[in-house]
Specification:
two-stranded antiparallel sheet, five-stranded mixed sheet, alpha/beta, 32% helix, 146 residues, 5 helices, 7 strands
Length: 146
């Protein structure tokens, strides 16, 4: 698991947005009010788009989630080096969680993007694996070489 890229800290702005191959719901942002501060915070789907841009494999995870660990282990086992965002360890993790839910990830973690395309959660990833479609997808995305 040492080969996994762990991304944490403050989310910065990134230039150039890539379009993902998923349908964005009509409401393209999530607004949350934090009870302790009353702060209204908006995080757009574009933030998630920037987080997955130009990365072959991105996994949104929680450090305490056993299914997240399983999916990270599966993908790393093929030699891929996924970028992992631990939502319980990064700033704005709750807002990103909401954005992932708005994109159709339920539960929101683990959420897997391969080749900037939303694959889905553990059921979708395991279905691809059982159908022998996961490795070809990782190869096409440039995550592994054979």
């Amino acid at each position: 698991m040492d080969s996994i890229n762990r991304c944490s800290g403050r989310l910065g702005s990134s230039s150039g947005l890539s379009s993902l191959n998923f349908k964005v719901p009509p409401r393209s942002f999530t607004a949350l009010t934090f009870p302790s501060t009353g702060l209204l915070c908006c995080i757009t789907m574009e933030v998630v788009t920037r987080m997955v841009a130009d990365r072959p494999v991105v996994i949104f995870s929680r450090s305490t989630c056993c299914m997240s660990h399983t999916i990270k282990t599966l993908i790393s086992g093929f030699g891929a080096n996924p970028t992992v965002y631990e939502l319980d360890e990064i700033q704005n993790g709750q807002q990103i969680d909401r954005a992932l839910q708005q994109m159709g990830c339920n539960p929101s973690v683990p959420a897997v993007f391969i080749g900037e395309q939303l694959i889905g959660g553990p059921n979708q990833v395991m279905t691809l694996q059982v159908k022998n479609q996961l490795v070809p997808l990782l190869i096409r995305a440039g995550a592994i070489w054979i």
